Amino acid sequence: MKTTDIKEPFRMEDFLRPQLFQKLARMVHFQWLRNPEDNSMVNASMWPFWLSAILNIMFFTFNGWDIIGHLWLGRPTNQNPPVLSITIYFSIRGLMLFLKRNEIVEFVNDLDRECPRDLASQLDMQMDRTYSYFWKRYRIVQIYAHVGGLAFCLMPMALFLLTHEGKGSPVAQHEQLLGGWLPLGLRKDPKFYFLVWIFDFSCTTCGVSFFITFDNLFNVMQGHLLMHLNHLARQFSALDPRQSLTNEEQFFSDLRLLVQRQQLLNDLCGRYNEIFKVAFLVSNFVGAGSLCFYLFVLSETSDVVIIAQFILPTLVLVVFTFEICFRGTQLEEASEGLESSLCLQEWYLGSERYRKFYLLWMQYSQRTQKLAAFGLIEVNMVHFTEIMQLAYRLFTFLKSH
């Protein structure tokens, strides 16, 4: 995006737009509107969360009953482990969105307050680059959700219509979208195939909407924090310590504003981590298990249709896990950039008062902001390697047994 193409200031709503399928399915979990009284952003409706809760309760109740019956009574099961595991993965993220919905709204409003309203200040902060990256990524996710997601849902139906042996034959698992169990034998009855497919399609839409909402909120928040941290680092670099000798009062007045802004951004980074840390701790390892199941299925089949159907979620798990960990590394580097900017400063040319303050400032700036979860994991590229290694170990365990 060229700077000359930008005519109006960016708004926070521009970064939080939902995908088309979410609007059509009424699965926009955060419907952002401005409160006319104070211009704050609010979530206009909780209905998508309640609809998603109903679908999730039905799906996991039915499948939980099937799993219990298999483990305790030895009944045959119709579970599809890769699909079930990725459904759990999506649902964990949806549950996090629901439990942290108030914190998310509050955090988005804090970011909105920190964003300048005039275009010149936004360009100085390089918000145009932040939006340009968001828009490119939004289009990529749009293709994944609408083309890849629809193909994933339609492939089992195409198999059923083209290869099913007849009305008297039960519906095979590879002809079902999600697999699992439904009451009264509905899932395996060909007469109710399309009714079951609609239920599965609704659950799939709900899960993908959870995933995309989580992904967009995580990336938009991180992109804005990076923008603010990098802008602050540039302000640190532009600070001239020699001015503390000529106009000490004004120099320390400006310096106080910079330090207060640094403290504010550190607080925002801490709250950002607080919102997502439980989801990272649980869903990343569930994602490793899901990736293991998908790799196992792909290694055990020679059916081109099944490979085509399952390769998409496999790639999604790898790519999106990589990006989350990469985002964590970016946040660390941006936080470390504040310290680097101070290290390159000619602090020794400042006044004695500034030199004493500089030592304390450096010590404070060495507290790097990171994405972590209870001291157990740090979300960065090292963590990505650990997840991939865990998925491979689980995969080799399944293959050996």
Report the β-strand fraction as a percent range: under 5%
Low-confidence stretches: none
Principal-axes shape call: elongated
Mean pLDDT: 91
Q: How would a crystallographer describe the biggest sheet?
A: 2 strands, antiparallel
* Secondary structural class: mainly alpha
Determine the fraction of residues in helical runs and give it as a percent range: over 70%
- How are the strands ordered across the major sheet? 1-2
Q: Report the total helices.
A: 13
The radius of gyration computed from the alpha-carbon positions, rounded to a whole number of angstroms, is 25 Å
Give the helices and strands as they follow along the chain.
HHEEHHHHHHHHHHEEH
* End-to-end separation: 53 Å
Query: Care to count the β-strands?
Result: 4
Helices, strands, pairings?
Elements: H1 12-15, H2 20-24, E1 32-34, E2 41-43, H3 47-73, H4 81-99, H5 101-114, H6 119-124, H7 127-163, H8 193-238, H9 243-246, H10 248-300, H11 304-343, H12 352-365, E3 372-373, E4 377-378, H13 381-400
Antiparallel strand pairs: 1-2, 3-4
